[in-house]
Design a protein that fits this description.
Blueprint: H1 19-32, H2 36-48, H3 52-64, H4 72-83, H5 88-100, H6 104-115, H7 120-132, H8 140-152, H9 156-166, H10 171-181, H11 200-203, E1 242-249, H12 252-262, E2 272-278, E3 281-289, H13 292-302, E4 307-310
Antiparallel strand pairs: 1-3, 1-4, 2-3
Helix pairs in contact: 1-2, 2-3, 3-4, 4-5, 5-6, 6-7, 7-8, 8-9, 8-10
Amino acid sequence: MHAKYLVAVAAIALFTAPLSAQSVKAGIEAWQHADYAAAVAIWRPLAENGDADAAFNLGQAYRLGRGVPLSLGSAQSWFLRAAQTGHVDAQTTLGLLLFQNGDQVQGLKWLKAAAVQGEPRALLVYGTALYNGDGVAQDKILGYAYVSRSAAAGLAPAKETLSQLDGLMAPDDRAKAIAMSRAIPTGSPVSARPSNPVAVAEANPPKQSTPKPVTPKPVAPKPKPQPPKPKPVATSPVAGDWRIQLGAFSQRGSAEALYQRVSGKAALAGRRPIYVPAGNVIRLQVGPFVSRAAAQGACGSLGVACFPVPAK
């Protein structure tokens, strides 16, 4: 990873970096000190002049609503500008954003561009789509090769998916796929990424950080196991008399935007948003939880301000 990315951890000495990198790095330093407006002010002119790293970072700011109003449309525009230059993180983030918002064709287009360069999340989602023939021409061997390369980079959901595929593919086909995988570039190992990156982990999820799986489709009436799905967080129904309240908003759209940011968190698995009118505001609540303690525990794991409330 380059030091000028939001997700980077390696340092580059100022006297060896080009002016553009220094400026993007200065924006990252402002961001890390929670001066988001200053970071955006540094990145914007660079992004407008074609700096892909600055455009990617500016897209992250819009996606998180930090230093600028939260706007997924603006985030998508800046990710697109960076992705069109070959920026792998932008291609992956844009692909996941489009894919998770229902634009499967364009999402897979950008995920493929990142996958062929070895980006682990893109390899998993695009490889699963290839295996299932979901949105692309089915190619089980190439799909397995992509998923196996993602697993080799350390992505946990890819390892789980690969284990499922091992039980479905014939040994000869697996051998072909493994041989094919050696030609796929290796992206940055997951274990080498920071445990708390500044922007990406705050937003995805698939996420931002784990990508949502492609839903498999049967392609023939032959009696055989269905293609696997990378398992998302369990979403079995739950019950209880408690909720958590994440805020009160003058517009429902703002409440919905916040829910979208946190909906992929494990603590909210199986829960649903409740939009409660209260005078001139809309309260965003999520539940149910079996007890106040369970609701309080969920609040503590979300990374956003919230508090338990009884369900009415």
